[in-house]
Amino acid sequence: MIYMSYPYFHLYIMQRGVLDDTCTLPQDLSKVPVLYMYGTEKAGKFHTEQSIKVLQRETDEKTSKSMAVAVDGAGHYLYLQKPDKCFDCMVKFMKED
Question: First and final CA of the chain: distance in angstroms?
Answer without folding.
Answer: 26
